[in-house]
Design goal:
The complex is a heterodimer of chains A (155) and B (107).
Chain A lengths: L4 E4 L6 E8 L3 H9 L1 H8 L2 E5 L5 E8 L5 E13 L3 E8 L6 E10 L5 E8 L3 H9 L10 H11 L1
Antiparallel strand pairs in A: 1-2, 2-8, 3-4, 4-5, 5-6, 6-7, 7-8
Helix pairs in contact in A: 1-2
Chain B lengths: L6 H6 L1 H12 L2 E2 H5 L6 H13 L3 E6 L2 E6 L4 H5 L3 H24 L1
Antiparallel strand pairs in B: 1-3, 2-3
The chains are: A alpha+beta (155), B alpha+beta (107).
């Protein structure tokens, strides 16, 4: 069975390419990436701010069951072309992982299918590899102490 | 001890994954690898032994030193530890697809 979501992270490079084809028309796919109430649903995060325009900024927040903030992510939107492309920066607040640049392109395949291509560029190979090593299997509900724990192991 | 090692067991351990990442960029001696961890040296040696037994690492003698490097044939194994990252995105995108399909029929 072919995998629906593909991740290409070549050894020694400082970027990742994530691709996925959807059984959704291009317009619906793009809305899922550009409307706060939809982003909240599939990302499982609270959208504090999402200015869908060039030079806009965005801010997401993830809370645990008790309402404690476990992860804050933010960045700026550099390019916002409806149904075509979103270029933004991404940073996890209070972590040493640095800033990553994300270029997300949307493509129509047929009237009912579409494709997304995310090109994520990190500051260095080491930074990319550290981010890849985060415990994704448990989702991104990491508490900061969990991140600290992993980082101290890497030292 | 001649247990046949399980590759998946080998890469399930975070220290061993970290070792693979270190060695992926350049061949290193056991000492150089151990200096990256707080773990006791014999523990790192044990990890190196397991990785070598399951052929993810190879040893090469260079003068008095033994260098460890990634077994190129088994590079696919290195790709395997991006699998959790891929799964995370796959799950998110599956949710996206489900939500948007409902959204479409509601309209």
């Amino acid at each position: 069975m072919e995998l629906k979501t593909k991740v290409n992270a070549e050894d020694g490079n400082h970027d990742i390419i994530i691709t996925r084809e959807f059984d959704l028309p291009l317009e619906l796919l793009f809305r899922a990436f550009s409307e706060p109430e939809l982003i909240e649903q599939w990302m499982g995060t609270k959208v504090l701010k999402f200015e869908a325009k060039k030079h806009g900024s965005w801010e997401f927040e993830k809370t645990d069951a008790k309402g404690n903030v476990v992860l804050k992510t933010d960045g700026v939107i550099h390019e916002f072309i409806p149904n075509k492309k979103i270029t933004r920066t991404f940073e996890m607040a209070n972590t040493p992982f640095g800033v990553q640049l994300e270029a997300t392109e949307f493509e129509k395949l047929t009237d009912d299918t579409s494709k997304v291509n995310m090109h994520v560029i990190y500051e260095s190979v080491a930074q990319r590899d550290q981010v890849l090593k985060l415990p994704f299997a448990q989702g991104i509900n990491w508490a900061h102490n969990r991140i600290q724990e992993i980082l101290s192991k890497l030292k | 001890m001649n247990l046949r090692r399980d590759v998946f067991q080998a890469i399930a351990d975070p220290t061993r994954r970290a070792i693979l990442l270190l060695v992926a960029s350049q061949a290193l001696t056991a000492g150089a690898i151990a200096s990256n961890f707080d773990t006791a040296r014999p523990t790192v040696s044990k990890h190196l032994q397991i990785l070598t037994e399951c052929e993810l690492l190879e040893q090469k003698q260079s003068g008095r030193e033994i260098y460890y490097y990634i077994n190129a044939k088994n590079m696919k194994q290195v790709a395997d530890f991006i699998e959790p990252f891929r799964k995370m995105w796959d799950e998110r995108f599956n949710t996206l697809e489900t939500i948007m399909k409902k959204y479409k029929s509601k309209k």
